[in-house]
Amino acid sequence: MKNKALFPIISSGLSLLGIVLMHSCATAPYPAVVSPPDSQSAPAAGSANYAASEAPRSRPGLGTGWGDELESEIGYTSFNRTSSKPAGVAAIYYNDKEGVNAMVDSWKYSGKGMQKAAGGLVEWGVKGSWGSLKNYHTRYSDNPRRYVVGRKNSNYSLVVKNLSHSRLEIVLSVDGLDVMDGKAAAYRKRGYIVQPGKTLVVDGFRTSESAVAAFKFSSVDASYSNQRHGTTRNVGVIGMAVFTEKGIDPWKWSRAAVKQRHGASPFAEAPYSRAQ
């Protein structure tokens, strides 16, 4: 039962202001939440780590900073993972326009904001203040990647829709940090539960059971990762791990299965002629 725990559940696909969350009767303690940036966390000038960290902090491009506090309430439920390994993992790389152009070179093509991942269990994307961010992909590559272009000082949200017929656990990371506790991301950490057909919208790093600090495109230097942890190594990537529920087939009663049932004939073989 090591994969069973009590943790947040989201059951609505509405935006932040219209979201409806289910609160169970569980009274488990809330997992460690994200702490605000602390300037003292970064290496001080003259320290042993200052010289090594100075260059990375001056990197060009975008990072994710600590935005305004937004209301976002959660409840709890139990969920037993099928396996300690996720059913699927995906990543989205982000940068400013110049940075994305440099990362994908001249071989690229764009796509719609929401795209399928984890074997079709979900579709996900990044939503900015002006709508879903367009995707760019390397056209010919042994290691295809997905990129989005952000705008400095604007907020963004992570959107994940459950396309399966069972609950899914979604573990998300930004700049290598878990969105629940702001520390190094890992598969073993718990995530959000999304009901079948519903959409999860995560607007920021969770600071309490009722609020998050908005994801905000910033400079690499002003990123939460740098300001809080003094590192920019994983700045520029958003990660997602999807877990299925033990003992439940996420594709039970899929469209194909329903279509097959509708195609059943009451007579295995048609009569050769009408009965007299």
Automatic annotation (TrEMBL):
Q: Which range is the signal sequence, renumbered to this chain?
A: 1-28
What keywords are annotated for this sequence in UniProt?
A: Signal
Stretches the record annotates as Disordered: 36-64
Compositional bias of kind Low complexity:
41-55
Q: What is this protein called?
A: Uncharacterized protein
